[in-house]
TrEMBL record:
It comes from Cyprinus carpio (Common carp). This is Dpy-19 like C-mannosyltransferase 3. Keywords: Glycosyltransferase, Membrane, Transferase, Transmembrane, Transmembrane helix. The keyword Glycosyltransferase applies. Pfam families: Dpy19. GO terms for molecular function: mannosyltransferase activity.
């Protein structure tokens, strides 16, 4: 809101009219949060008819890595005691065959551990099933998310109207803001509500004239929310890196005080270090770019004195040098840390980013898996149509443009001010000013008529979605899981696609060769080896690979072997052919150095049931979707002939 500061000298500033947080307005924020929670819960129930399907069907609905995470919650509940459950997680030998790994170190599953303990101690077992306790908790976090958005918008504008619009916009644009109703267990659905809470706390912390006692309380809230965010998502470091870069930029442009910058950096560092300890000294955290950046920024800031003194040209030059020094030291520290720690857990992410931004084509199997997924593709054009349809896009773009222009003007004004004792007086006399919390956030405002329009739209659009009823139907997968559970040994080891194996672990408890949690270099290499069942490899080579990882059974999926969902070059069999240096299937161009494979595709050839496939594998289960083969153990004579 624009306001006149002096009678004879008009000053343009982004300020606000103080307004107390009235009880009815608080209730509105909570009501919007509860509405979002009930809405996504209803969509989930209507989409699957969750309350009327069998337990195995409910578990199958936890697709891909969702099933893997939920399996640890189920495992903790089945354990004789909490202590035994924790011991089994720390010494797990069922998630990766022939290996004993610490699940609490490898994965961010403390939320499953906490929830399982809570379910054990609360008197709710008689009337609330464990699976409902789990999904309702995740849906309840959406309440926290919306309330945090409401508070942030309210703090920025001192108007409950802005808070209400933020909540309504979030709900209306559900397709583009969350996928919680069908990917319940994904780490982002646990962590992002805490991140929204952290942003609200930072917004409060950066408000002008905040009392010291209030600053300390809010900083604690920043720490707690940052810690919860980091603990529940393995990709927290990339989000925090972006946040640290924003703090660095605002510091360079003189929007924040030294105390504010150091405090916010320390909250990030302390949160990451505490998570590092809880995850049994997970080296991926110490090797994160955000830690290297914060250490570099604080170190250079401490020794590069006089950064904010001098005229405009001198200050810009100093800032350019400062930025260069910080970035150089960041990459030096990060490179050294990864070399010392021999860290390769996140190298596939940087390979993906490098290829995504066009820095050379890649045949790397792991990076290609990400590149070919729609979720990591460019934003679809219909996204903008949807956002415009809810009248969000144009007000957002207008507000963003105005604030960005004002931000540039204020930044130029700040850089033109000499950092002397007269700095505070000069700041008061500036033509353009912007609050630091506004500079940190995007301001969301709109008119009363727009809000009324949204509420009417809420009743044409959301009620239609809620009234649409579907039912979970996947009989082939149900049949497969029941057969595995009833017809195979409890310690049997299964090989197959990452997505399917996560479901097998959840529904049957069998041992896996690989799984979808991809943040481990050895696991990625094992997955590439196991996936040779969909490549052009000999029966002997595939059998050798599967035996080396301890597999007893392999599950082949027609939907992968004859995949049509992706275009040529992005089908799994194409990625394997490229990684193996083979020409891809079907019409189309191939790179000149690729060669014809000397063997047929394994997943097709094995179905002929002819030697050498019948010599090494026996089909034990088949339906329209899946083919399960049992590995025959080679006799010692054959082993000697084929080598170790």
């Amino acid at each position: 809101m624009m306001a006149v500061r002096r009678e004879n000298n008009v000053k343009f500033t982004v300020t606000s009219i103080a307004a107390p947080l009235e009880t009815p307005s608080k209730q509105l924020g909570i009501s919007l949060g509860l509405l979002c929670c009930i809405y996504v819960a209803t969509l989930h129930e209507n989409d699957l008819w969750f309350s009327n399907i069998k337990e195995v069907e409910r578990e199958i609905s936890f697709r891909t890595e969702c099933g893997l995470y939920y399996s640890y919650y189920k495992q903790m509940l089945k354990a004789p005691s909490i202590q035994q459950g924790l011991y089994e997680l720390i010494h797990d030998n069922t998630t990766e065959s022939k290996r004993t790994i610490n699940i609490l170190q490898r994965m961010n599953i403390y939320q499953e551990v906490f929830l399982s303990i809570l379910y054990r101690i609360l008197p709710i077992q008689t009337y609330l099933e464990p699976i409902y306790f789990y999904i309702y908790t995740v849906f309840a976090l959406q309440t926290v998310y919306v309330i945090a958005l409401f508070i942030t918008s309210w703090l920025l504008s001192d108007s409950w109207l802005a808070g209400a619009l933020s909540g309504v916009w979030y709900i209306l644009n559900r397709v583009d803001t969350t996928r919680v109703e069908f990917t319940i267990s994904l780490r982002e659905n646990w962590s992002i509500p805490f991140f929204a809470l952290q942003v609200a706390a930072i917004t409060c912390y950066l408000r002008p004239q905040l009392k010291p006692i209030h600053q300390r309380v809010v900083l604690w809230l920043v720490f707690v929310s940052t810690f919860c965010f980091c603990l529940t998502w393995q990709f927290n470091q990339f989000v925090l890196l972006v946040q640290a870069l924003i703090i660095f930029t605002l510091d360079c442009l003189d929007f924040l005080t030294k105390e504010q910058v150091v405090s916010l950096y320390l909250m990030q560092v302390l949160s990451l270090l505490l998570v590092w300890l809880l995850q049994f000294c997970n080296s991926m955290i110490l090797g994160s770019l955000v830690l290297s950046f914060i250490v570099s920024a604080l170190f250079i800031k401490h020794f590069q004195t006089g950064l904010k003194t001098g005229g405009f040209v001198i200050r810009v030059g100093k800032l350019a040098l400062h930025t260069l020094l910080v970035l150089t030291l960041t990459f030096t520290i990060n490179y050294s840390a990864k070399k010392i720690l021999q860290l390769k857990s996140d190298e596939h992410i940087f390979k993906f980013i490098k290829a995504k931004f066009g820095f050379g084509a890649t045949r790397d199997f792991d990076a290609s898996l990400y590149l070919c997924e729609e979720a990591f593709g460019l934003l679809p054009l219909d996204t903008f149509e949807r956002l415009a349809g809810t009248v969000l896009l144009y007000p957002y773009l207008c507000t963003l443009s105005v604030l960005f222009i004002l931000l540039l003007l204020v930044a130029l004004s700040n850089l033109s001010t000499n950092g002397s004792g007269q700095a505070s007086k000069e700041k008061e006399d500036r033509t353009f000013r912007m609050r630091p919390d506004v500079a940190y956030n995007l301001l969301h405002t709109s008119s009363d008529s727009t809000m009324l329009f949204f509420f009417s739209l809420l009743t044409q659009q959301l009620m239609e979605e809620i009234s649409e009823l579907r039912e979970f139907y996947d009989p082939d997968t149900v049949e497969l899981m029941e057969w595995i559970r009833l017809k195979t040994p409890k310690r049997a080891v299964f090989a197959g696609s990452m997505q399917l194996l996560a479901g097998i672990k959840l529904c049957t408890g069998r041992v896996l060769t690989n799984h979808p949690h991809y943040e481990d270099q050895a696991l990625r290499e094992r997955t590439r080896q196991v996936y040779q069942i969909y490549a052009r490899q000999s029966a002997e080579e595939v059998h050798k690979v599967l035996c080396s990882v301890g597999a007893d059974y392999i599950v082949l999926e027609d939907s992968i072997c004859y995949e049509r969902r992706h275009s040529r070059g992005c089908r799994l069999r194409d990625l394997l052919d490229l990684a193996n240096g083979h020409i891809m299937d079907g019409p189309g161009e191939n790179e000149p150095d690729l060669i014809l494979a000397t063997h047929p595709r394994f997943c097709e050839a094995i179905k002929t049931d002819m030697p050498p496939y019948s010599t090494l594998f026996t089909r034990v289960f088949k339906n329209k979707t899946f083919h399960v083969y049992k590995l025959k153990k080679l006799k010692k004579k054959n082993k000697a002939e084929n080598g170790p």
